[in-house]
Amino acid sequence: MTEKMAKAMNDQLNEELFSSYLYLSMAAYFENLGLRGFAHWMEVQAKEELEHAMKFYRFINERGCRVLLKEVRAPETDWNSPLHAFEEALKHEKYITSRINELMRLSREENDYASEIFLQWFVTEQVEEEASVGEVVDKLKLVKDSPNGLFIIDRELGMRK
Ligand code: FEO
């Protein structure tokens, strides 16, 4: 792997760690609101992001390059509403998708086929990520401020495996 590619992979490792940190912060926000189901959903999401980070960690090592960990920036801690938090999560996932696409473009530019194949998993994963967060956004828009609606969604999100 070229130095340029390794640097880009290291940067993405950092973004995945930040994603985990962001969703854990959202979990804490929901916990504070007493919405345990929402909090649980975000905790599971935070763990998934950590696993994404580890995939980059292992891949960089396997390619004989060095993992260089950097500072993880602090996430937001407050949102205006559950809908606002999920809208921000969706915005974040779209940003991550654009980064994965850019990494894919770079791997092609560098004729780095191993990286291209590795990144394919993330291209597919991002479709899922955007869809699952988008689904919650749509539901929250439907129920608006109805406490009953929120309660039902909270119960449903609490069942995420
Ligand atoms: Fe690692 Fe949610 O993308």
Helix content: over 70%
Biggest sheet: strands, sense, closure?
Answer: none
CATH fold type: Ferritin
Report the radius of gyration as a whole number of Å.
Answer: 17 Å
Compute the number of helices. Answer: 5
Q: Choose one word for the global shape.
A: elongated
* SSE order: HHHHH
Strand content: under 5%
Which ions, cofactors or small ligands are bound in this entry? Answer: MU-OXO-diiron
What CATH first level would be assigned? Mainly Alpha
Look at the helices and sheets and give the structural class: mainly alpha
Rounded to the nearest angstrom, the distance between the terminal CA atoms is 36 Å
Note poorly predicted spans: none
Strand and helix map with partners:
Elements: H1 3-33, H2 36-62, H3 82-109, H4 113-143, H5 147-157
The structure holds MU-OXO-diiron (FEO).
Q: What's the quick description here?
A:
This protein has 161 residues and is mostly helical. It has helices at residues 3-33, 36-62, 82-109, 113-143, 147-157.
Structure commentary:
The chain is an all-alpha fold. The chain has one domain (3-157): Ferritin, core subunit, four-helix bundle (Ferritin, Up-down Bundle). 80% of the residues lie in helices and 0% in strands. The protein has five helices and no strands. The chain has helices spanning 3-33, 36-62, 82-109, 113-143, 147-157. α1 (3-33) runs antiparallel to α3 (82-109), α2 (36-62) runs parallel beside α5 (147-157) and α3 packs antiparallel against α4. The longest helix is centred in the first third of the chain and has 31 residues, at 3-33. The protein is elongated and about 55 Å long. The N and C termini lie far apart (36 Å). Bound molecules: MU-OXO-diiron.
